[in-house]
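The records we work with from here on pair a chain with its fold. These numbers are not coordinates but entries in a learned vocabulary of local backbone shapes. To see the layout at work, look at the sequence and tokens printed below.

. . .
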Amino acid sequence: MVDRSAAPRRTLRLRTRVTLFFSVATLAASLALAVVTYAVARNYLLDQRTSVARTQSFSNANAIRAEMRVPESVDLRTFIEQLPETEGFAVLITPTDSFFSDQRFPDIVLPDELVTNVKAGNYGLQRFEANGEPFLGAGIYIAEFDSLYFEGFPLETTDRTLGTIATALLVGAGVTALIAGFIGWWTNRRLLRPLTRVARAAGEIAEGGLDARMAPEADPDLAKLATSFNEMADAVQARLEREARFASDVSHELRSPITALSAAVEVLDGRRADLPERTQQALDVVVSQVRRFDQMVMDLLELSRIDAGSTELHREGVAIDELVTRIALRYGFGDVPIEIGRKVPTTVQVDKLRFERILANLLDNANQHGGGPTRVTVEPRGRHGILLAVEDNGPGVARGERARIFERFARGSAARHKVGTGLGLSLVAEHAHAHGGEAWVEDRAGGGARFVVSFNEVA
């Protein structure tokens, strides 16, 4: 089981990152274009409004000058009110009086800077607000009569138009970003589809399907990828099969000499009383090593059959409490406490031979390296699974070794100087995988290790 504490930090998927990149890049470009467009539109509308204000204010000022030259022709107040300026207001300030076209806007609303500038004899043009409304003020000095003429041109329509343009540009940028995100998602989905097929084929190979291959690709660049992957898979399959055949052949060839050697050693061990003491000590070493060698060959043969796929899973209904008790007694661990969870089904569907191999190896591992097994438990897992656990009273297993000890010939630091083949736990993991489960080790409450094996779909 993989140590979950060392799991890498989760990041966004490549497809998500590419889609986000498309969306963000398009949004940035759209916003930049929107800013430029808005600035151009704003300058154009304000320039147009300024040009109209300048033309109309000069025209009206000339009309007022002509009217002032004939004082008795018409009343100035009436004349101001009849000027062709229907949206804003007009103000005429003479040395003796002031005239307003709209009483809502007296001269006090005019900015001081504009009035001062016009009094100095200059043409004035300035933006300001009156009664909360935006205006563009134009001022002209009528030197002939020492008078000041002002017009206020409303900018509310212009500002509303600019607001509409800004809203349209922002909405357009957002919609463009969404469309670009969809196009990016659709595009990278098509581009990553070959990688998905590679990942699927690699996953099948990792799960034992060594004959998994990629289908030919029509695109020349992708065809190279498919060809290279298939050639790599062929090489890996050939090498694994060669190594499996080699291990199987070696193990099979060793069976005969090991059997003969074991028989000879047993004969010598049966007559150990006739041997000198030093010879008995040497005989003990030979007996233990021959038995270890025999066990290693048996384990290698079993692993070879598993690798070759010649062993099948034969599930049958068994009484779990009777099965665990019988296995413990058979291997000399009848005094180890056995606890069966209340929610564990009385009858479970497992391969009895594989289950016995798992429990026997875990008990032997606890006896060899964990100070002896202290408890065997069977607990429910979900609705259709169970957990088999063997606890010991040893030093435990370091976190950095918890995944490695289930590999072949791997030995933890606690077992480095003890007798063993280094294959027992790897067989446990293989048989657990055959049941659709997995094997792992964790700390036991109170000290020691707790080896756990999960079995799926047994109820």
Summary: Residues 1-7 have pLDDT under 50 and may be disordered. The radius of gyration is 47 Å. The longest helix spans residues 14-68. The chain has nine helices and twelve strands.
